[in-house]
Design goal:
DNA binding, XRE family transcriptional regulator, single chain, 6 helices, HigA2-like_HTH, 434 Repressor (Amino-terminal Domain), mainly alpha
């Protein structure tokens, strides 16, 4: 194989993601999955900052330890967006929902979670 042919065969096309890996993978309910992911990320950050063990987090959240383990491992099945927001408030976090008109520059409206 010539050097040019080898170079061509290893060149991969790179596509910029949308910012939502679930949408990029064309999974159903991509916006909801992304919202859950960001909520669980925020929840895990609070647990980390508080240095709670899974057992201690479970006691505080009113869950069993396997459910906390699922959250820690980003297994989102069985958790609704509403339940995740309630868990955050249980850990003394305010959850704010802001609704506004999308900018004209963006084709579609979106749901986003910003943790501060």
């Amino acid at each position: 194989m010539t050097r040019t042919a080898a170079k061509k065969s290893t060149t991969a096309e790179i596509t910029r993601g949308s910012g939502n890996v679930f949408a990029d993978l064309r999974l159903p309910d991509a916006e909801e999955r992304q919202t859950k992911l960001r909520l669980v990320y925020a929840l895990n950050a609070v647990i980390d900052r508080s240095r709670l063990s899974q057992a201690a987090a479970a006691a505080r959240l009113g869950l069993n330890q396997p459910k906390v383990s699922a959250l820690r491992n980003y297994k989102l099945e069985g958790f609704s967006v509403e339940r995740l927001m309630t868990l955050l408030t249980t850990l003394d976090q305010d959850v704010e929902i802001v609704i506004r008109k999308k900018p004209r520059s963006r084709a579609a409206a979106r749901i986003s979670v910003v943790a501060g």
